[in-house]
Amino acid sequence: MIVMKFGGTSVEDASALCNVAQIVAARRYLKPLVVLSACAGVTNVLIKTAHDAAAGNKKEAMKGFAALQERHNTIAEELLGPESHRAKEVFESDFAELRQLVHGLSILNELTPRALDQIVAHGERWSSRLLSLFLLRERIPAEYVDARTVMITGNEFTKAAPLFDIIQEKAEKILQPLLDEGKIIVTQGFIGATKEGITTTIGRGGSDYSASIFGAVSNADEIQIWTDVDGFLTADPKIVSDARRIKEMTFTEAAELAYFGAKVLHPSTILPAVQKSIPVRVLNSRRPEGEGTLITNTAPAYPGCVVKSVAYKKGITVIGIQSTRMLMAHGFLARVFEVFERYKKSVDVVVTSEVGVSLTVDTEADVEAIEAELARFADVKVEKNKVVFCVVGERMKLTKGVAARVFHALAESGVNVELISQGGSEINLTFVVDESDVEKTVRALHREFFSDNYDEAGLVDEIPE
Question: How does pLDDT run across 148-193, given as a tens digit for each residue?
Fold first, then answer.
């Protein structure tokens, strides 16, 4: 049994959905459970529409819903032909409900997290309804399952925590009998429901996480993440034309790369799969014949591969905090991080010295307020428009001179490194540069670590156009 998750670009229109159906049908013998994201861009429109309604802009909100309904009706007509009425009836009922929500929000002028979840959860339901109906039309035994009947969560709306024990029970009761009957289950990522049946979502990018949870509770043989790239690459192909696909990597490597900017999968995807030792394979729905990247607990140690990949995250703010005393007083760091805790602000990179600490955050939200609080007991310097780079590889911890190679390559390319962190993770070297140096940094590191001997490095020597 496998889980197949398809992202937004893989289900963006009728042609894409037809392609997904062909991919799924070809793997019918593997007993697939299919998890879908909303069609590309739909979630963003739903969020904007919800905010328009709460701001009192009812006309603009209704316009947004009308455009979405027309888009999904058009997909239904192209995909299902004369049978499109079955999908359209569902869409009309859903949009009638959404219009009522808009009316209420425009009166209250308030958008609660619960109301937002109720609105944005529709996108995945629409795409999965379309695919299930198309599979049935093609005489493929598909079964539409509302994820909210299985993915039971807490009531932390917009970022709900899955309740794994209950999900396991629901999966055994609802999903397993269908799989045993040979049905192809079509369900949704990203969405769930409380024990009381109130709709929730598990955060942006949560469809990958949903797929991993479904795989874990169903004891899947493999979890497949179908997207629009061939897998994990050695670097950003928009910058490095000869970036290569990585054949195999470990869960730890994939998690580090995902967290630090490799937009192939959501970092949390890894966790349920790791716990059950279920392999995760990243595949390209536009090239279904490809092998993608296989992620396991123990990937092969290729002799020519010290560094697996280079990832980066833009929009970074560096906050330098220096004690106003000559040496840091007892409790200084605790006071610093208490401030970040109060604002629920995540920190990516931390470097300390005898008299201060420098750290990075990935959004500017609340930075001014945090700076003001820190300034009560420290000298604070804020620098924006920075980039965090992450050089990742399991064999780095066993190889001498990797850091020297990294910084020599950057120096030769005229890149100034502003902050360095290593040791928090044995498989990654993290540093910060200015945003103006992104392309120079990527190219310098790729030249240094990725030779032409791709096979020995566990890389594929050609990425098709």
Answer: 999 999 999 999 999 999 999 999 999 999 999 999 999 999 999 9
Strand order in the sheet with 419-422: 350-352, 356-361, 309-323, 378-392, 428-434, 419-422
Instruction: Name the packing angle between helices 122-137 and 58-80 (round to 10°).
Output: 20
For residue 34, give the H/E element and its range. strand 32-36
Tell which phi-psi region holds residue 366, choosing left (phi > 0), alpha (psi between -120 and 50) or beta. Answer: left
Question: Up-side HSE of residue 37: CA atoms within 13 Å toward CB?
Answer: 28
Other beta carbons within 10 Å of 279: 18
Choose among 391, 384, 335: nearest CA to 363. Answer: 384
Q: For residue 382, what are the contacts with CB-CB under 8 A and spacing of at least 6? A: 317, 318, 319, 320, 367, 371
pLDDT at 452: 60
Q: Residue 393 phi/psi, 5° resolution?
A: 180, 130
CB of 14 closer than 8 Å to CB of 73: no
The torsion angle over the Cα atoms of residues 148, 176, 186 and 227, rounded to 10 degrees, is 100
At 6, which helix (H) or strand (E)? strand 2-6
Alpha helices in 144-303 (DSSP H): 164-170, 176-180, 206-217, 251-259, 270-276
The one-letter amino acid at 313: K
Report pTM: 0.86
What is the pairing mode between strands 222-227 and 199-201? unpaired
- Which domains are delineated in the chain? 2-228 (3.40.1160.10)
C-alpha span between 200 and 190 (Å, rounded): 9
Token pair listed for 372: 């003001």
